[in-house]
Amino acid sequence: MFAVKDLSFTYPKNNEKTLKGISFEIQEGEIFGLLGPSGVGKSTTQKILIKLLENYQGEVTFKGKDLQCYGKEFYQEIGVGFEMPVHFSKLTAEENLTFFKKLYANNADCDELLKRVGLYADKDKQVGEFSKGMKARLNFVRALLNNPKVLILDEPTNGLDPKNARIIKDMIREFRQAGGTVILTTHLMNDVDELCNRVAFMANGVIAEIDSPKSLKLKHGQRVVEVEYIQDSAPVKQLFDLDSLKNNEEFIEIVKTKEIITIHSKETTLDDIFIKVTGVDTDE
Ligand SMILES: Nc1ncnc2c1ncn2[C@@H]1O[C@H](COP(=O)(O)OP(=O)(O)OP(=O)(O)O)[C@@H](O)[C@H]1O
User: Fold this and answer.
1) Residues 178 and 255 occupy one common structural domain
2) Can you give the CATH number for the domain in which 56 is found?
3) For the ABC transporter domain, which residue ranges apply (predicted)?
4) Is there a single domain that holds both residue 150 and residue 99?
């Protein structure tokens, strides 16, 4: 869908490049996570992909054609949900959606979407009276207004309680199942684990790692099993190599004869990988 090659970008007032030659491809029908520490250039990359920032170096193509060749028709296929929702606060939710709908040739069923995200009963309320989470849900509905083929989402579950976050994540998954492509930026590695087919970790203006979450976990994880058991009335922990487990006499003997407290394969998490490849903690 998108192919990005050697993309570099410097903001006019900055001396240093924000993007220092990044390359990646986003396949049709995948949920692609663009991850990395705050300020690394994720939103900048998204803004280039949606033609909000020009004057970049390198090549960006959409469906095989240079992005710069596209005019306004490009936006008919793209749904964008920025992190900071921009709505008309004096207008109601429905009036906001009606306004934005007029920009597009193709329209989704707004009532259905409002019902799905739990905002139908509030559709006649002024958006200025909405909570942060309600604005985030309305923002997501807005991204789907034109029945897009590509969704570009920046922190779509930010400010949402677990129930509403679940609804949005289900809708993102359903969008993909219906053939849509999603480019997702988030700091929530659990969301990434649940949703993304592939992820790119950005660090210092370049892409440090790009692969499926599963492959990254295998690559960065320890292939070991930790067994915790009772030995002489006290708990003991022991590590065993996962790949040779079935022939490991000592492991088999422990499982057969000891009281086992826990057994865990010591897979790494995306949080661990984030810290390892970007050098920054996800909480920072
Ligand atoms: N309009 C701008 N003018 C100058 N510098 C900018 C501008 N917008 C962003 N930057 C700088 O570019 C860098 C990358 O910003 P960007 O918003 O792309 O980061 P990000 O990875 O999306 O961060 P976050 O996770 O906090 O949203 C930062 O150093 C930021 O200060």
Assistant:
1) no
2) 3.40.50.300
3) 2-229
4) yes
Residues 21, 34: one domain? yes
Look-up: residue for tokens 């199942």?
177
Residue 81 token pair: 């949900």
Domain membership of residue 235 as a residue range: 222-266
Cβ–ligand 1 contact at 44 (below 6 Å): yes
Whether residue 154 sits in one domain with residue 38: yes
55 lines ligand 1 (CB under 6 A): no
CB 88 less than 6 A from any atom of ligand 1: no
Query: Would the CB of 278 count as within 6 Å of ligand 1?
Result: no
How high is the pLDDT of residue 107?
Answer: 85
Using alpha carbons, select from 186, 151, 148 the residue that is nearest to residue 81. Answer: 151
Print burial letters for 179-198: b (CB count within 10 Å at least 16), e (below 16).
ebbbbbbbbbbebbbebbbb
Same domain for 164 and 107, yes or no, is yes
Q: Is the C-beta atom of 39 inside 6 A of ligand 1? A: yes
Residues 143 and 238 in one domain: no
- pLDDT given for residue 102 in this prediction: 86
Q: Roughly what angle, to the nearest 10 degrees, separates helices 162-177 and 132-144?
A: 10
Pocket of ligand 1 contains residue 177 by CB under 6 Å? no
Number of structural domains found in the chain: 2
Task: Give the closest residue (by CA) to ligand 1 atom 10.
Answer: 11
pTM above 0.90, yes or no: no
How remote is the CA of residue 18 from the centroid of ligand 1, in Å?
Answer: 8
Exposure of 264 by Cβ count < 10 A (0-12 exposed, 13-18 middle, 19+ buried)?
exposed
Span 181-239, pLDDT tens digits: 999 999 999 999 999 999 999 999 999 999 999 999 888 877 889 999 999 999 999 99
User: Does the C-beta of 186 come closer than 6 Å to ligand 1?
Assistant: no
Same domain, 66 and 181: yes
Q: Are 203 and 34 in contact (CB under 8 A)?
A: no
